[in-house]
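Progress report, Aim 2. The chain analyzed during this reporting quarter is listed below.
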Amino acid sequence: MLKNILDKSRQVLNPLARTLTRSSVHGNVASESAATVATPPAARSPLILPQSYADYAPISRNSPRQAWIENSDAVEERKVGLVELHPDVFAAQPRVDIIQENVEWQRKYRYVSMAHTKTRAEVRGGGRKPWPQKGMGRARHGSIRTPLFKGGGIIHGPRSPTTHFYMLPFYKRVLGLTSTLSVKLAQDDLHIIENVDIPTKDAQFLKDLIAERNWGPSVLIVDKDHMFPANIGHASDELGYVNLMPSFGLNVYSMLKHDTLVLTVAAVKHLEQRLLFQLHRNDAASKGGKFKLDQV
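Predicted structure tokens for the chain:
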């Protein structure tokens, strides 16, 4: 009788156990799938660009500078990474005298003076002798257009066109760039962005971005490539205080003319590469010679 009772209890409990097992398994799978769906995607890791001193060890004893990398795809400012800047380029001793010489050179080398005066041979009139050589009691003169007379020719006056071109020594130009970049960074007027890809051609987007980040009132945006994207090209065309420039054309006068200097990461690396090469080149003595018009 006891055996019959055990057999009947197994018949009742075994299906119940199987049902409970299936429900627990399905519940675990559902909870795992729900957790998978609810888990947000991992955020993009920040971009950290350390400085490599393998090729060019720093001459300056200043510590390397660090700067935030900002986004350019939205008006709201977002830090997307950190870049370490070479101290020989962005932490150089600011030579204000060399900066001034660079500015003076850039203002003069393209200037052509059109001031012009006429000599006694070019002034109208004065062809005949004004009075006889002797017998009048007056000083002897051969023309009323000599420099001694009013309305006569000018001696040693300016002659047009007069060029004011001269070439600043090579390393004064290099040090002018490093000094100006260091001053801009120290004054918090240098900003680094990820790229120049803005989402729209509307100039209002660029205007809002500049106002939100306190850039300006005039902004110079520099990228490595001379071909800028169409969006930023159209947007900056309508804003007279925003200019675009490739990194190979960056100069002291343009950096000082604009209040804010904005560099892309590619432009920073290109500037560091070119300036460090010039500061550490082996044939530096050959660059100190007199400038020749036919030199490359």
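Confidence is low (pLDDT under 50) at residues 20-42. Helices lie at 2-38, 87-90, 96-108, 170-186, 203-212, 230-237, 252-257, 265-280. These observations will guide the mutagenesis work planned for the next reporting period.
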